Amino acid sequence: MFEMLIVGFLTAVACIVVMVKINIRRFLWVEVLVDIMFTAALLFMFAGTLGGMIAAVFAGLILSITLWILKKRIGYERLKVSKQGKFRWERVHNEG
Q1: Which of 28, 31, 32, 55 has its CA 20 to 30 A from that of 74?
Q2: pTM of this prediction?
Q3: What does the alpha-carbon distance between residue 15 and residue 9 come to, in Å, rounded to a whole number?
Q4: Four-residue CA torsion sign, 63, 34, 16, 40
Q5: Cβ atoms < 10 Å from Cβ of 42
Q6: Secondary structure of residue 41 in the 3-state scheme
Q7: Distance CA 19, CA 58 (A)
């Protein structure tokens, strides 16, 4: 049982590291969508064993809590369309 939780934790950490390398603030804009897609993909990949399902659910839980805390602490960037029709990223700071 403990091994499954370790696998879930390491999977969530690996996903967070990849998002940090790309730009975590842009992922935080759509944190709910990222969370749902990540958890669903893990459930699909680890389906078939109870240990795999436990690891997937635990990884989804860790990722969900981490993204929620990060969004509240560091803010996020959202895509904005300017009057000239150009796209740019706008930083949004959360209070709290």
Answers
A1: 55
A2: 0.83
A3: 10
A4: positive
A5: 23
A6: helix
A7: 18
Q: Where are the alpha helices (DSSP H) in 1-96?
A: 2-22, 24-28, 31-45, 50-74
At 35, phi and psi to the nearest 5?
Answer: -65, -45
Residue 81, domain extent: 2-92
Which pLDDT does position 64 carry in this prediction? 93
Return d(Cα 96, Cα 75) in angstroms, integer: 10
Q: How many separate domains does the chain show?
A: 1
Comparing CA positions, the residue from 74, 78, 72, 82 lying closest to residue 91 is 78
Q: Which residue in the block uniquely carries the two structure tokens 């659910």?
A: 57
